[in-house]
Amino acid sequence: MKLLKYIQLGHGSGGKLTHELINEMFVKHFDNEILRQQGDSALLPMDALSLSSFTSESDVARSFPADSKKLAFTTDAYVVDPVFFPGGNIGTLAVSGTVNDLAVTGAVPLYISAAFILEEGLAFQDLDEIVRTMAETARNAGVSIVTGDTKVVNRGQCDKIFITTTGVGVLESTFEHIASGKRVETGDKIIVNGFVGDHGISILGERESLNFTSPVRSDVSCLNSLIREVTRSFDVHFMRDATRGGVATVLAELAETRNKGIEIHETSVPVRDEVKGICEIFGYDPLYIANEGKVVMVVANEQAEEVLVRLRGHALGRESAIIGVVTGEPAGKVVLNTEIGGQRFLDMLAGEQLPRIC
After folding, report:
1. Which of 220, 261, 239, 219 is nearest to 307 (CA)?
2. Per-residue pLDDT tens digits for 73-87
3. Which terminus of the chain has a lower count of CB atoms within 10 Å, N or C?
4. 112 contacts 143 by C-beta, under 8 angstroms
5. Which residues contact 74 (CB under 8 A, 6 or more apart)?
6. Residue 217 dihedral angles phi and psi, to the nearest 5°
7. How distant, in Å, are the alpha carbons of 14, 23, 198, 202, 278 from that of 353?
8. What is the pTM of this model?
């Protein structure tokens, strides 16, 4: 597919235009075997790496399972507007997003680097709050921010602050299949760990000064402890955090890449009434709204109910739900059984619903 002549906001949506940009620009020029995986994290061989420098008593050493074979490596940039929003800020978003990109591959997140682009005139008080909460979020997630960079640009050349983070973790060989979804099979159940759309609507509410009866808070959070509760005990076939493009885009991409059908039940998808109401007013679909604390899991059918119980026992999974099933047909498509009894296809997000959401 031929690219448009100029970059549009939709190229940052995580949907169709983003995939076209990645494949027709970046993959074309940077092409290599690892990049072609196109997961949330690159999975790198560890043959040349030695762990002997870690003592058996260190926390880091205990983070490396004996059969670790891969290094998980990810990077992301954060340009959210506004930088402070109910439930978090650009700093908590940067750390959580990086931790989650590692965790959804099945990896144990360990280290983060952080690069800051600061606009002249940014208040020190705001920067201090962002950095403080980044540090707190990292500590709570069990990761360390170990290196970084800072640049300052003239007024008007950056919107207050942009942050780029890179994360490193270690992946056990038994989890290598999760990122690609190559073990997804007909009959597998699809689970999400709670209410969808909270982050996007939180940003929208703050941006547009909407007066909610009950304020919608972003779900931004590090999911590594929740995910570990499941992966160490159950057969997880696929995971992805539903950020830009929402749950629908994750499922559409999975269906297309694995050539499987997916059937979703709208009434099973947890959505807050406040989020549903705002989506109706603005003409948005909650399934396409960004999240920053939601993971879509595909698990073996016979273990789905047990996985659900385990998720609901964790603070970040109280409202977890089985929302659908992997089917044979129609191959490569996601079918939504709607609340009113009809059906429609869910495709990747086209265009941009809410720019600068993360």
Report:
1. 239
2. 999 999 999 999 999
3. N
4. yes
5. 40, 41, 42, 98, 101, 102, 166, 167
6. -100, 145
7. 11, 22, 14, 14, 13
8. 0.88
